[in-house]
Design brief:
Largest sheet: 4 strands, antiparallel
Number of helices: 9
Distance between the termini: 49 Å
Number of domains: 2
Order of helices and strands: HHEHHHHHEEEEHEEH
Shape: elongated
Strand content: 5-15%
Strand order of the largest sheet: 1-2-3-4
Length: 272
C-alpha cells in the first residue's frame, strides 16, 4: 500500500470514529487510575482489632517510675535516708499512691453506676474528716504525727529496676498481640492466632457489632472498652475485651460494614 492510499484512508475516517479512538486511548489510563484507587481503598478499609491484657493500663506507674529514677539520679540520691531525704520520701510516696490506684483499676471493674458510688463515698469520707476536725480539733494533730512517722523511701536504682521490668513486660505484650488479633477485610472477619499464623474466617455480611464500656477508668486511661461481634454463621458471640480507643474502632467497623452492604446490594441489582 502506497503512502497516498494511507493518507486517503486516514482522511476518509469520520469525525465520530476519530473521537471514539481518542476516547479509547484516554479511557485506558483512567481505568488504571480507578483500579489503583479501588485497591488503595480496599487496603485502607482493613480494620484491626487487638485485645490487650489489663497490664497496659499500668502506664501511669511506669511514667512515675521513670520520672522518679531520673529525678533522684540527677539529684544524687543513690543512698537515701528516710529521716533527712524529703525528696526521696515524696517521690516514693507518689509512686506508691499511683501504683495502688493502678492496681485498684485493673483488679476491679467500675461501670458508670459503681464509679458514681465511689465518688459519693470519697466525698462522704472527706466530709466526715472535716466534721471530725470541727468536733475534735485535738485529734487531727495526733493523726498527723502518726502519718509523718511513716516515711517510705527508695533510691534511684529501685525505680530504675521497676521501670526496666515494666518496659520488658510491655515489649512482651507487643510481641504477644502480633500473634493474636482480628481483622475485618474483603467482606471477611479474620482471626489471626498462634505462632504459625493460624487463620479462622467468618463472613462479614450481616455482622452485628455491640460496644460496652465496662470500666470508666480504663476508658479514661486509653479509651478502652469491649466489642461484641455477632457473625451470622455463629451461635455464640465473639467478645473482645480491652480494645483500645473502642469508640473509634466501632465507628470504623460501622462504616466498613455499611459499605459492604451497599456493595453487596449493588452487585445483586447488577446481576438482575
Amino acid at each position: 500500500m502506497s503512502g497516498d492510499e494511507t493518507k486517503q484512508d486516514e482522511a476518509s475516517q469520520s469525525p465520530e470514529q476519530a473521537t471514539s479512538a481518542t476516547a479509547a486511548t484516554q479511557s485506558a489510563p483512567a481505568e488504571s487510575k480507578e483500579d489503583s484507587k479501588r485497591k488503595k481503598r480496599s487496603r485502607s478499609q482493613r480494620i484491626y482489632l487487638v485485645p490487650y491484657p489489663k497490664f497496659v493500663f499500668m502506664y501511669p506507674t511506669l511514667i512515675v517510675s521513670l520520672v522518679a529514677a531520673i529525678v533522684l539520679f540527677f539529684a544524687g540520691h543513690r543512698a537515701v535516708d528516710p529521716d533527712s531525704d524529703s525528696l526521696a520520701v515524696v517521690m516514693t510516696g507518689l509512686f506508691l499512691i499511683v501504683l495502688t490506684f493502678n492496681t485498684f483499676i485493673i483488679t476491679f471493674d467500675f461501670p458508670r453506676a459503681t464509679s458514681l458510688t465511689l465518688v459519693f463515698v470519697a466525698i462522704s469520707f472527706l466530709l466526715g474528716l472535716w466534721m471530725l476536725a470541727i468536733a475534735k480539733p485535738a485529734l487531727l494533730p495526733t493523726i498527723g504525727d502518726l502519718i509523718t512517722t511513716v516515711r517510705p523511701v527508695a533510691n534511684s536504682s529501685f525505680f530504675t529496676c521497676i521501670a526496666i521490668g515494666m518496659i520488658l513486660l510491655y515489649a512482651a505484650i507487643l510481641i504477644k498481640v502480633r500473634f493474636d488479633y482480628w481483622e475485618l477485610s474483603n467482606n471477611e472477619l479474620l482471626h489471626h492466632h498462634g505462632i504459625l499464623s493460624d487463620l479462622k474466617r467468618y463472613p462479614a455480611p450481616n455482622l452485628r457489632v455491640d460496644k460496652e464500656i465496662n470500666d470508666v477508668f480504663e476508658y479514661l486511661l486509653l479509651g478502652a472498652g469491649r466489642l461484641i461481634l455477632h457473625p451470622s454463621t455463629e451461635k455464640r458471640a465473639i467478645v473482645l475485651d480491652n480494645i483500645l480507643f473502642v469508640s473509634t474502632k466501632e465507628k470504623e467497623l460501622t462504616r466498613a460494614l455499611g459499605s459492604i452492604k451497599v456493595k453487596i446490594g449493588g452487585d445483586s441489582s447488577a446481576s438482575h
